[in-house]
Hints:
globular, single chain, 13 helices
Amino acid sequence: MTIDTLPEKPRTRTKLGDYAGVLLSGFAMGSADVVPGVSGGTIAFILGIYEELIGSIRMVGQPVFWRALLRGEWRAAMRLVNALFLVVLGAGIVGAIFLLAPGIEWMLINQPVLIWSFFFGLVLASIVIVSTRIRRWSASRFIALFLGTAVAYWVVGLVPVQTPDTWWFLMLSGAIAICAMILPGISGSFIMVLLGKYHFFINAINERDFASLAFAAVGAAIGLVTFAQVLSWLFRRYHDITVATLAGFMIGSLREIWPWKETLESVVDPVGEIVPLVDRNILPAL
């Protein structure tokens, strides 16, 4: 299935087990999105639902969908956006974030090498899978791969900043992070770290601060639909170059999820958590 054919011929799912698989895929994506440095888009690529996901989201911003809604053709509108797929996948993502956030936060603090090693191996293996999606390698594809790697390597090396907790910045954070989330290799959670909002939102989830989460959700919805238009256009026009760039993003992100690190500088964030500010990758002790 490709992005071009999705709106007219969405994947047919008739059995409960089919949607159970979608729910588990969403759960896996949500689990990854909680971890700074790991992208839910990477998991979607591995599980083979990435293009269907982008194609479905893209249709939400299309005039044909809104015309169907305004005419009261609800069934046709829901079929255009592959609604049941999106709802079930979204339920899995949200469920994983709420259920696993405390446990993953505990693992990041108490067993960081184990959890980072798992995700490092997962991303490393998925790079091979993503690379097989390139139909024909050429000089332009290798250049795209190199540029994607360089950009991601630079982004994950940026130092987090202190930012306000105002409603507009929470919306902006949600919009930026969701765009990163659907890009393999660029982690939405890590973007939250750079924006100084990762621990803020983890605490908001754990403490059920639904007001702050709602602002972020509105921003995420706007950013997701908008960015899906751009990404699907790139897939249609420059498929191999786009995939090569995404593979580069994943290669560059390995810098951030290398399991063995030495913290050089840390700060205390507004909620009292000690956050590593500057660190470096080191070799494991033998």
